[in-house]
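Quick one:
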Amino acid sequence: MKVVVLEIHKNTVVILSDKGCVMKIKNRNYVIGQEVLIDMEKTKMPKRIFAYALAASIFLFLGLGIYTYATPYTYISLDVNPSIEYSLNRFRQVLSVTGVNDDGTNLLSEINISNLKNKNIQDALSLTIEQLSESGYFNLEESGMIITTSSTNSEDDITLAKDLQMVANEQIAKLGHNAFVMSEVITRERLEEARSAGVTPGKMLLVEQLAKSAGTSETINEEEWLQKSIREILKQTHQYKEQHQESNGDSGNGLPDDDRPLQGSETETVKEEEKNREQEMNSSENASPNSQQKQDDADDRNTPMDPSEDTQNTNNKNATPNKGN
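Output:
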């Protein structure tokens, strides 16, 4: 039987079964919200624990427990072109799944939604990606997906966003596809703003980034782009960025030729010349004393002599040697 861990005590945990039963079992390092498969026939409970479980069951279902389990705490949006929103309780169990656009509604009609409800969001996301794959949404180049998380706890949102991005990447790769996956944390205000526009916050965020990428070169009709797929939005954003890079790297940027940025080959040439000059300087500084002395002697040999010294040397050469009588 599948159960969900609701409360954790020192040596025991309180669980909720898929049949709506609440009971207490031995704690085997469980965490709140964890789904566990247990064999009830092998799970023997002392009468005291059974009595506690019965009392806890009454309390939870009549009071705080059922309220906590059934109250939405986190909202997850997923966009490819189908746009889907999941609502989760505090234990990251799926309470509801909604198609935000027509493609999202059609996709969910192909999935048995009952298979997504009461599952943890990681499993629900994996099942959704499988259906997206079967429907051919990852067959095109530059396919993309954006996942957003929104709750009252920003730290939980950050952790969950990273976890879901990792799950999505692994599942897409497992199915043999290559798609760009990004995740973002948003505020409740942004969530409500997106709902008012009839879109997910993830798609709204990407269209805003598209408008920034276009800059002043082109006016973006955001309402029109909100109806396009994530793939189309990402592709156009990439094209705008490439155009800006090309224009910034163009030599016709208003700078004199001497002040323009060096290209790759020119940079390498300058570096090589600087390296050669440095080697020559080091070679000169490291010359030995003997080498310096030899250089000084060579300089002395090439220095012109005084004229008087030259005359004296000539007279000595022409003198007749004295012979003995």
